[in-house]
Write a structure and sequence with these properties.
The chain is an alpha+beta fold. It contains 3 helices and 4 strands; from the N terminus they run αββαββα. The chain starts with 5 loop residues before the first helix and ends with a helix.
């Protein structure tokens, strides 16, 4: 899968609410009422990620979950990252 250009990244980001571009990755922090809701969300993300064999970095901080996406095998952002980000957006 090919790395995306800066213009392609900007276009994909325009369709995602709250995601930021940081170097070779995209990042979003999700906020929940409590730890249990955070973990429930992470479980949904894990199921999505496993289904498409593309696994984000996930940080849980009580009621906050930070998702970071990058295609490590390609060394940057690909369409896979934005496809998964869109699916994650839907379950948040």
């Amino acid at each position: 899968m090919a790395l995306l250009s800066e213009n392609e990244i900007a276009e994909y980001l325009s369709n995602l609410e709250g995601w930021g571009h940081e170097g070779s990755r995209i990042v979003k922090q999700f906020k929940f009422k409590n730890f249990v809701e955070s973990v429930g969300f992470v479980t949904k993300v894990a199921i999505l990620a496993q289904r498409v064999d593309h696994h984000p970095d996930i940080l849980i901080e009580y009621s906050k979950v930070t998702i970071t996406l990058s295609t490590h095998s390609e060394g940057g952002l690909t369409e896979k990252d934005f496809n998964l980000a869109s699916e994650i957006q839907e379950v948040s």
